[in-house]
Write a structure and sequence with these properties.
The protein is an alpha/beta fold. The protein has a single domain, classed as P-loop containing nucleotide triphosphate hydrolases (Rossmann fold), CATH 3.40.50. Helix content is about 50%, strand content about 15%. The chain is built from 8 helices and 7 strands; from the N terminus they run βαβαααβαβαββαβα. The chain has helices at about 15-25, 30-40, 45-55, 60-75, 90-100, 115-125, 165-190, 200-215, and strands at about 5, 25-30, 80-85, 110-115, 125-130, 135, 190-195. The strands form 2 sheets. It has a 5-stranded parallel β-sheet, sandwiched between helices. β5 and β6 form a beta hairpin. α1 crosses α8 (about 200-215) and α4 (about 60-75) packs parallel to α5 (about 90-100). The longest helix is centred in the C-terminal third of the chain and has 25 residues, at about 165-190. Bound molecules: adenosine monophosphate (AMP).
Amino acid sequence: MNVVLLGAPGAGKGTQCKHIARRFGVEHLSSGDILRENRANGTQLGKKAKSYMDAGGLVPDDLIVEMMADAIGKTSEKGFVLDGFPRTVNQAEELDKALDDMGLKINAILNLEVSESVVIERITGRRSCPACGAVYHIKNMRPKVDGVCDNDGEKLVQRPDDTSEVVENRLRTYHKQTAPVVDYYKKHYNVMDIDADAKAEEAKQIIFDKLESIEQK
Ligand code: AMP
């Protein structure tokens, strides 16, 4: 099963993709995570992506499409869930072409709908573990000990692009370049809108129900 998860920054794509990957055995492909990994490893791609990411803008389409097509090509026949990609209409078109070349198709597109005030609260309160990648929130998903990862005791950090100054730019980028991707898919596919203002657990159940009905077809 191949799934695309759409939604603004802070809509909960990462959290829901982790649940989907665990429940359905598909691979979670997060463009943001792959870029951060490239930066941490000092690759050419990581170096090229840095300035765009730090400013809250988008990394150029050609770099992203190649990176994601490569990642999709390495997944097993169980499938994948895309998180953070595609983020422009051009990326969506290029993804369609790449999947066609690989003989693959998208089985489900979920669109997490979230209000702006919820997004800002979620993103600016987000803290993550630099070692294992676990994600917490200073109010809604607190670690057992403040500022410390439950899994490995590492000190939690705020992603540099999660600060309130950068978040505003990321949201502007979303409205200008990524929101049209939802319209693109609505023209070509059956897109399932999900209320993502709700608690993550409720949204998860709605998503599971929808994907289970697709899996049984
Ligand atoms: P994320 O973790 O998905 O919020 O992504 C963090 C940053 O990585 C974004 O603000 C962009 O700068 C960059 N990025 C991630 N995915 C894409 C994409 N599909 N296209 C362009 N830039 C991306």
